[in-house]
């Protein structure tokens, strides 16, 4: 296997449109591990939302790394040893919630096994809980909740067409205090300034003495951009948004057509 690290986004990349890992992709990734490669799941999802796929890929046997919250938290798997943990600055917590509310956007955070919101019909809360194998918890007031809890990430949601019109109005008040990007047409993800998948991958590679040329990364959305730029080989899925396809070193098949396997099989 040419690459030491295989880094993959989850939704739209590793999983298909049904949120499943295809048999061909699973087999290619298991074979890569047998040949010495380490898998890194790199997602906007919370850590808890990566366990099912990690086990399915036999990472509990071969070992690997879970990069969650767009790089704000990293743990070894299956030991769950924390390698990196970065939370949103306390001074930004209330402004994030209040600005989202002013724009009629829904707000969620993740705490352990729960997706936390303070709105009964929070847009995409049930969806988020489902794909992450979590439960929805509705609290009285999210502002009060975060007084005693520091989230790694805020997740903002709304119907895609509306969210697109509100993105800049949501982002602009925060300037360079936060990293704000989209991970799906209906999601805005908010983490601390300087936190993204690329910087997390860079820091991890320096810590573990792995050259960027020994890293291949796969992605499809804007929160994957820095990761694909950093990796020695950045691969855009066939279903990737246009900016990702433009900066990628390679473009593979879509997530519904075994895109990861199509590329990896050339190196196995």
TrEMBL record:
Pfam families: Hydrolase_3. One of its GO terms (molecular function) is hydrolase activity. Keywords: Hydrolase. It comes from the Bacteria. SUPFAM superfamilies: HAD-like. Gene3D superfamilies: 3.30.1240.10, HAD superfamily/HAD-like. Signal peptide: none annotated. CDD domains: HAD_Pase. This is Cof-type HAD-IIB family hydrolase. It comes from Amedibacillus hominis.
């Amino acid at each position: 296997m040419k690459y030491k690290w295989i880094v993959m986004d989850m939704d739209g990349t590793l999983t298909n449109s049904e949120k499943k890992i295809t048999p061909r992709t699973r087999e290619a990734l298991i074979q890569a591990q047998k040949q010495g490669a380490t898998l890194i799941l790199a997602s906007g999802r919370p850590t808890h939302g990566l366990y099912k796929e990690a086990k399915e890929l036999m990472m509990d046997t071969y070992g690997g790394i879970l990069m969650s919250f767009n790089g704000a938290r990293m743990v070894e798997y299956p030991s769950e040893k924390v390698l990196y943990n970065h939370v949103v600055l306390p001074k930004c917590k209330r402004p994030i919630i209040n600005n989202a509310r002013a724009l009629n956007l829904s707000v969620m955070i993740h705490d352990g096994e729960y997706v936390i919101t303070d709105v009964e019909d929070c847009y995409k809360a049930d969806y988020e809980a489902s794909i992450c194998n979590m439960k929805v918890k509705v609290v009285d007031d999210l502002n009060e909740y975060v007084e005693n809890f520091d989230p790694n990430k805020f997740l903002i949601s709304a119907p895609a067409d509306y969210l697109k019109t509100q993105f800049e109005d949501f982002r602009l008040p925060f300037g360079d205090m936060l990293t704000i990007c989209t991970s799906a047409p209906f999601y805005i993800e908010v983490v601390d300034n300087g936190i993204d998948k690329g910087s997390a991958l860079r820091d991890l590679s320096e810590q573990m003495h792995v050259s960027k040329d020994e890293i291949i990364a796969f992605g499809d959305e804007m929160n994957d951009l820095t990761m694909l730029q950093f990796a020695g080989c950045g691969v855009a899925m066939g279903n990737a948004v246009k900016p990702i396809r433009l900066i990628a070193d390679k473009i593979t098949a879509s997530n519904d057509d075994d895109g990861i396997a199509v590329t990896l099989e050339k190196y196995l």
